Amino acid sequence: MISERDSETTFDEDSQPNDEVMPYSDDETEDELDSQQPVVKQGQNQINRDAEEGRETLKKDCSWQVKANDPHFYEQPQFKRTVFLCFKKSKYAGNAIKTYKYNPITFLPLNLLEQFKRAANFYFLVLLILQSIPQITTLAWYTTLVPLLLVLGITAVKDLVDDIARHRMDNEVNNRTCEVIRDGRFKNTKWKDIKVGDVIRLKKNTFVPADILLLSSSEPTSLCYVETAELDGETNLKFKMALEVTHRYLQEESAMADFNGLIECEEPNNRLDKFAGTLSWRNMSYPLDADKILLRGCKIRNTEFCHGVVIFAGADTKIMKNSGKTRFKRTKIDSLMNYMVYTIFVVLILLSAGLAIGHTYWEQQIGNSSWYLYDAEDFSPPYRGFLNFWGYIIVLNTMVPISLYVSVEVIRLGQSYFINWDLQMYYPEKDTAAKARTTTLNEQLGQIHYIFSDKTGTLTQNIMTFKKCCINGQRYGDCRDGAGQLQSHPEQVDFSWNTYADGKFSFYDRYLIEQIKSGKEPEIHKFFFLLAICHTVMVDTSDGQLNYQAASPDEGALVTAARNFGYVFLSRTQNTITISEMGTERTYDVLAILDFNSDRKRMSVIVRESDGSIRLYCKGADTVIYERLHPKNLKREATQEALDIFANETLRTLCLCYRDISHDEFEAWNKKFVEASVAKTNRDEALDKVYEEIEKNLILLGATAIEDKLQDGVPETISRLSKADIKIWVLTGDKKETAENIGFSCELLTDETKICYGED
């Protein structure tokens, strides 16, 4: 079975792999297909035919092939690449990673090469060579060799200590274990021994060892919750969902061992949010997208176990493709010292040249006529001047400060310890101290001129709280009693009437509660019903309590608010959603989900109501919602006024709206939606075009206002950085008024600041 959601991917026409594209054979290598066929939905045959028609086009772009549980598949000649002359190796990387610079063989040559990039070191190497020439040497060669070896040795030891730490980190990662199918059974295997095509089992709170296709999990409909902090710094849980066919048939260990699906997808690349490919299994093709892929570096959360097949391993994984090669870094101080040494070296050459010219003149005038200066060598005065030029270079070598490099290295080492010991950079709540991970870049911290920062989650706590709303032109959220009269002393609303209420939720407008209980305002019902149904939040139950897992904290706050006001999101499958409406439990068919992205700035769901009617619910930024409203929206101006008030209070706002859709209109639109969902090229553009056709003539319900508080100490920190003449830029997607007020509250903007607007 394949649902409409399964058929959505994000394959772009211009998506080209980073690595060299290898030629492949078109010969099919699949094993005999099982006689058992999965039950197929009506319309699946059409989707499958569309997938088959685009198969040849897909093969040209998706040239990476993975066969589950078949190690011999990768030994075919077309999967080999030439590494040197006639020597070939598999193009599929092993899962062992390395982030270190050196190994026992390359340490000495690479480290010396790096050190001799320093002008002073290279100068003393040349000096040592000159001192080994008897005709020009004026000092013993060991007078240069000993300090040079001392400088090189100290730096080499420091670099070796840093690299040993990287080796230890790599060994710790490579020797982690997980369960892999071996000889038909799950067996504990080290990460470094995992190969492409292996079927693995991951357990709760463990890291994902490679980029894998999710096959099934312990959750209903094979959901899998992951934390992606290692990839993008986000601590919010995100969820992945397996194909319905693999969820149904791949739960038992024996089924995992017999799984022989063929995955054709794009070559390894560094795009974390993009993936396109197909799974061919049992004479059927299933589109794959990024929502079905678990990336290396993710951590399994709130899921007891999950199964997957390895698609990219080791250096081919997306996180490693983003890391790039470990490169040598040079600070501004290093560049400055090199410049100083070059300048001193030019002065030294000019001085030695002047002395050599003077010596030549002296030889011509006096040296040749003085018998007591004869050294038994019949050299001409110019040649003697040439030899003495190099002699003066050697004698005046003390002008070049080789000890300066050693001094700087010692200072950097001391600075790194001071950073580690700094109590002002210690965070007692989590017992976390500052840590200098390298001793070569410390002084760069004092060279910063610009800071570019995100707002949400960086300057703010990323803990969203529902504060106010506007429904049908009426604002709610102020401190009012049940009759709608303002109160001077805020009293928290009692939610004891709601068995699903979240005890942490605070609200002070009793008038809204009375309006909800009375049921006289149908717009209020639609408003909170929309919050409960138009989202991608997942729910799990523990100890009888509902726990929401949201990819976005905004969505979590809105669904939690609806829950407290009596519209409780209870559960969902791939095609249905269950909601408790003021104590009455109902299940709705979800006909389509029109996803949110940064370009659309909105999301919609199309559901079939209990009476059989079809309705679209939409929420998004006011700028895009107002463009798509029906011309006869009566509460447009009142809602806009409320949005401006909320923005001035630094609250994050969203507009809510809906429209009724006839059955004929939906059937015609859904046909286009399915076709766009299986498009092989420009799929995103095709889906956006289809979305636009249905998201029009919307009826405005109202707006929500969410608070995201600043983190402790943000204004003081920005003020101190500004006094250090550091320029700070903050990126935010808020409305202009909201952004401006937050700028003042965090002291990024002051009364003396001149504000320039984009339209100016």
Automatic annotation (TrEMBL):
It is a multi-pass membrane protein. GO terms for cellular component: apical plasma membrane; cell projection; endoplasmic reticulum; trans-Golgi network. InterPro entries: ATPase_P-typ_cyto_dom_N, ATPase_P-typ_P_site, ATPase_P-typ_TM_dom_sf, ATPase_P-typ_transduc_dom_A_sf, ATPase_P-type_domA, HAD-like_sf, HAD_sf, P-type_ATPase_IV. It holds the Pfam family PhoLip_ATPase_N. Residues 174-237 form the P-type ATPase A domain. ATP binds at D454, K455, T456, E555, F596, K619, R652, T732, G733, D734. It comes from the Eukaryota. One of its GO terms (biological process) is Golgi organization. The chain crosses the membrane at residues 139-161, 339-362, 389-408. It is found in: Apical cell membrane; Cell membrane; Cell projection; Endoplasmic reticulum. Its cofactor is Mg(2+). Its EC number is 7.6.2.1. PANTHER family: PHOSPHOLIPID-TRANSPORTING ATPASE IC, PROBABLE PHOSPHOLIPID-TRANSPORTING ATPASE. Belongs to the cation transport ATPase (P-type) (TC 3.A.3) family. Type IV subfamily. Component of a P4-ATPase flippase complex which consists of a catalytic alpha subunit ATP8B1 and an accessory beta subunit TMEM30A. The flippase ATP8B1:TMEM30A complex can form an intermediate phosphoenzyme in vitro. Also interacts with beta subunit TMEM30B. This is Phospholipid-transporting ATPase.
